[in-house]
Design goal:
5-stranded mixed β-barrel, 19% strand, globular, 4Fe-4S, 4 iron, 4 sulfur cluster binding, metal ion binding, EC 2.8.4.3
């Protein structure tokens, strides 16, 4: 591994406050030692050597790593306009511009990564890059990655092998192909990626997307570049994500980043850092713009979305303690003050009464009565709650450091269903966690039967380095046992979900149309209030918004659908009419 002799400093990071804020810093540039043979012409090689020599001379007289550390120890005021920053001393303003180079973005993993892709593209677009959906014409390929399980990372390694052929072909061209790894995998593996795959030019962690123009400029000089600094305050509040699908009817709005829960199995606190929330005002501004664009649904997004706490202004910092769900505890000291999730949810739901509001992914501990009451009262807040259980065994839940017992979780389920009649519940479960016995597994199966979720996300346990489980527990459940238990969980979940969903047969439901069904060009699909997929024929119907000739449903329309059949994953029915969210209340 190359020694870190001189660092290319991120100007913004010098304002990030105490040195603790840079504990996960890696800013590394080195000569790109590609295993691919050089195919450049002599004139091209002389040109590149000239650029590299000029860059190296500027770098040699630039700031050192010690200068970065000294500067980081003294907090500096954050300017109000990040775009107005001066370029680093070793790069010119022109070198920071994209110069119409084409970027291909590929997203893996959770909804947070979808939102991160939109943020990264917004930043690159402002720097003069162009977006392409054609891999073959891309000058830069950026993979937004996931590290939640080993399988997710293996998918990226396989993809890099596929891209190696494309990069080799591009050595013959005037513009070399640059490949970057963004997101959680870059944060978790850091230099290992650069050392294992020499074809990778760039790494950027989840908090380093503002630095992409600089990293890409460094890469163009023949260096590898990385910034995997985790921040205590980065929320991209001033970056307006660029919607990747112009025909979308819904959007994700990131309201907070990071997680403080430190569940023993989870890598998220180590790849996305500590919890920090966006100011309420910036969230409302983004939601208003989405409403103005005609979008009909927003999902408030965060690793622990309902622990939202806006401390951005002094008057918010009262001494009021956090209200938790009854019988739940935290792994950290109780937090005080700030505008809480119930306040944000209230304000967001008032922006547009015709816009549906969802949120994910919450933690069960953060469902105080004021949140449940608000969901019940507001017609445009969807009556659907994701309630990750992870296990049905209190013993395993304690080992996972979830902060609740099975009994407390079941009591919360009953309380939610009493507070919000007809609510749809979804959950996450892990099969084969450290020390899980057959009895523990049977308790999880019984919880699935008892709660009867509408939707579920079930996975076999995958141990991750850096987590508490990695350091304190033993991954002692054999792989074949994990997979067998997972199959049993899936079977029981589907049985119970089918029962739960069949209670909708004969009911009329409001559906937000998304587009054509993937399985039939004669059917449309959309989602109901409970976030279940609803399939119905593309037929003419009455228009209750503008009475007159019959119409066909279009993406973004609200329609009433009479449900005729149900499975564990899908509802089917026939369309009745086009309507509005407000007017539908008389029929649903």
């Amino acid at each position: 591994m190359h020694s870190l002799q001189r660092v290319l400093p991120v100007q913004r990071s010098l304002r990030r406050g105490p040195l603790a804020a840079v504990s996960w810093l890696l800013l590394r540039t080195c000569r790109a030692h590609s295993s691919l043979p050089s195919m450049a012409s002599p004139s091209r090689e002389r040109q590149e050597n000239g650029v590299q020599k000029d860059f190296s001379s500027r770098l040699a007289t630039g700031p050192t790593f010690q200068h970065f550390l000294r500067s980081a120890s003294a907090p500096q005021e954050k300017p109000s306009s990040p775009e107005a920053e001066d370029p680093p001393p070793y790069l010119t303003e022109e070198e920071l511009l994209g110069g119409q180079r084409k970027v291909y973005l590929e997203t893996y993993g959770c909804q947070m990564n979808v939102n991160d892709t939109e943020i990264a593209w917004s930043i690159l677009q402002k720097s003069g890059y162009l977006r392409t959906s054609n891999l073959q014409e891309a000058d830069v390929i950026l993979l937004v990655t996931c590290s939640i399980r080993e399988k997710a990372e293996q998918t990226i390694w396989n993809r890099l092998q596929q891209l190696k052929t494309l990069k080799t072909k591009r050595l013959h061209s005037r513009m070399p192909l640059r490949i970057g790894i963004l997101g959680c995998m870059a944060e978790r593996m850091k230099e290992e990626i650069l050392n294992r795959e020499k074809m990778v030019d760039l790494l950027a962690g989840p908090d380093a997307y503002r630095d992409l123009p600089r990293l890409l400029a460094v890469v163009e000089t023949g260096q590898q570049a990385a910034n995997v600094l985790l921040s205590l305050d980065e929320t991209y509040a001033d970056v307006m994500p660029v919607q990747t699908s112009p025909s979308a009817t819904s959007a994700f709005v990131s309201i907070m980043r990071g997680c403080d829960n430190m569940c023993s199995y989870c890598i998220v606190p180590f790849t996305r850092g500590r919890e920090r929330s966006r100011p309420v005002a910036s969230i409302l501004e983004e939601v208003r713009k989405l409403s103005d664009q005609g979008l009909k649904e927003v999902t408030l997004l965060g690793q622990n979305v309902n622990s939202f706490r806006d401390n951005s202004e002094v008057q918010f910092n009262s001494a009021v303690s956090t209200n938790l769900s009854r019988g739940f505890t935290t792994n950290y000291k109780t937090k005080q003050g700030g505008l809480r999730f119930s306040h944000l949810l209230d304000q967001v739901s008032r922006v547009d009464p015709e816009m549906r509001i969802r949120f994910t992914s919450p933690h069960p501990k953060d469902f105080p009565d004021e949140v449940l009451q608000l969901i019940q009262e507001r017609d445009n807040i969807c009556k659907q709650i994701h309630l990750p259980a992870q296990s049905g065994s209190s013993r395993v839940l304690e080992a996972m450091r979830r902060g609740y017992s099975r009994e407390a979780y079941v009591e919360l389920v009953h309380h939610i269903r009493e507070s919000i009649p007809g609510v749809c519940l979804s959950s996450d479960f892990i099969a084969g966690f450290c020390g899980e016995t057959e009895e523990d597994h049977l308790q999880t199966l019984s919880l699935l039967r008892e709660v009867q979720y509408n939707t579920g996300f079930l996975f076999a346990y995958s141990m991750r380095q850096k987590t508490r489980a990695y350091h304190r527990l033993k991954d002692d459940v054999p792989e074949e046992v994990k997979l067998r238990r997972l199959e049993e969980l899936i079977t029981v979940f589907r049985e119970e979900a089918s029962k739960a969903n069949k209670t909708s047969v004969g009911c009329t439901q409001l559906v937000l149309v998304e587009g054509l069904s993937k399985r039939s060009v004669t059917d449309l699909c959309g989602r109901n209030d409970g976030n279940l997929k609803v399939i119905f024929p593309d037929a003419e119907m009455e228009d209750y918004i503008n009475p007159g000739p019959k119409v066909r449903a279009q993406p973004g329309d609200y329609v009433l659908v009479k449900i005729t059949s149900a499975s564990s994953q899908t509802l089917k029915g026939h369309v009745l009419c086009r309507t509005t969210l407000k007017d539908s209340l008389a029929y649903c």
